Amino acid sequence: MRTPGTLAVRRRIGFTLIELLVVIAIIAVLVALLLPAVQQAREAARRSQCKNNLHQLGLALHNYSELRGFLPPSRIAMGQVGWGGPTTAQAPGPPFFLNASGWTMVLPQLDQAPLYNQYNFNSAASWTTVYGAYSPAQMAFDPEINWPVVSTKLPVFLCPSDPNPLYYPSSNTKYYSVSATRPGGMRTNYDFNVWYGEYYYQGYAHQYWYDYQRAIFGANVSNKLEDIKDGTSNTLMVTETVRSVWNGVPPAWGHGGHVQVGIALDMTWTPGINLWTYPGYPQSRQIGRLCNWASAGSMHAGGCHGLLADGSVRFLSENISYTTLQRLHWMRDQQVLGEF
């Protein structure tokens, strides 16, 4: 009860404007501090998943080798090749060309037996042509038969850090399309280590090239693990790449195509990892898009993953020397590898 002459004292409820601004500022600082940590945690998880994908591919290749006695070829009967050496001699015929990928042969070891059973190994996987070397009429049957398989999205072939497209976007060119009505098959972030010249001289390195300059995989070639004279812990089988390139196109897991031959760490004109600028073309630079086909790289900071022939996965620094990359890439050069 109020007494006469006494002023009522009222409690102030709420914030002043200054107090509100201080609280907002503190929250903004906390968010700024926490957001990079959250992003780093997410990238660490994606990087771990990427590494696990390569582990799974390594196990599948070793299981395939144990079952068959040899490793699969990187590509089979590629019709886009411009030189008629081992291609014509080893391709089935007539018709001659399959444009097939060795990954289709490993599907059962990747827990994809139903997909493997759906794939027709007597039919082409795509019709990609180049330099007038052949026409779609020379394909083995119709590549539309295998479209449901080669277009299948398989997470084991995808790095979760890579935001680039899954498919070649157009079917207007015979360079990279599966058929007249289909674009290219689903891309992959991991592919076999091969000689870069496979895009034009498939099989040449394994038949005529210097013996020491051989990668583990090649077109129409099935090597054995015992063929790796440098040691399985010193030789790369599969290397990570990005699903976008400036010159050419990245590989697809289910078929081959022009320059879709694998990963070539011994490529002389674009040597290295995470090369975003094509030599002599500064306008080509775009982070997240490799400068050239058959190049190694990733969206992980500082380098990319590589699967060694012993099944282990190593992170390859983008600062690694070209000499070391060559020695990792070649399986029988008999050179001391050193630290990497």
What does this structure look like?
The chain is α+β, with helices and mostly antiparallel strands and 340 residues long. 24% of the residues lie in helices and 9% in strands. The strands form 3 sheets. Strands 3-4-7-8 form a 4-stranded antiparallel beta sheet, with helices on one face. A two-stranded antiparallel ribbon has the order 1-2. A hairpin with a 4-residue loop joins strand 7 and strand 8 (313-317).
**Radius of gyration from the alpha-carbon trace, in angstroms:** 26 Å
Give the strand line-up of the largest sheet. 3-4-7-8
Summarize the biggest pleated sheet: 4 strands, antiparallel
* Uncertain regions spanning at least 5 consecutive residues: 85-92
Distinctive features:
single chain, 340 residues, alpha+beta, 4-stranded antiparallel sheet, two-stranded antiparallel ribbon, 7 helices, 8 strands
Q: What's the SSE blueprint?
A:
Layout: H1 17-68, E1 75-76, H2 86-90, E2 100-101, H3 113-118, H4 147-150, E3 190-192, H5 198-201, H6 204-207, E4 236-240, E5 245-247, E6 290-292, E7 303-308, E8 313-317, H7 322-329
Parallel strand pairs: 5-6
Antiparallel strand pairs: 1-2, 3-4, 4-7, 7-8
A few lines on this structure:
Helix content is 24%, strand content 9%.
